[in-house]
Amino acid sequence: MKANELRQKAMPELQDLLLELLKEQFNLRMQGGSPDQISRSSRVREVRRDVARVKTIMTEISMSKFNG
């Protein structure tokens, strides 16, 4: 997921996406020591970074509204 794609979305869409990503992150964490650990660990990193991207874009949007 690219930051440019996220900037084109509205705040409610970003909030929904963030919720989905956090649920996925939780589920991946709860899988524990499953046999497909290598692919799971790479997905955990992707999801963590996607969560950070979404939060960053949400902050940018709220700051731009605050600053005018």
UniProtKB/TrEMBL annotation:
It holds the Pfam family Ribosomal_L29. GO terms for biological process: translation. It comes from the Bacteria. Transmembrane segments: none annotated. The keyword Ribonucleoprotein applies. InterPro entries: Ribosomal_protein_uL29, Ribosomal_uL29, Ribosomal_uL29_sf. The keyword Ribosomal protein applies. Keywords: Ribonucleoprotein, Ribosomal protein. One of its GO terms (molecular function) is structural constituent of ribosome. One of its GO terms (cellular component) is cytosolic large ribosomal subunit. HAMAP family: Ribosomal_uL29. Belongs to the universal ribosomal protein uL29 family. This is Large ribosomal subunit protein uL29. The gene is rpmC.
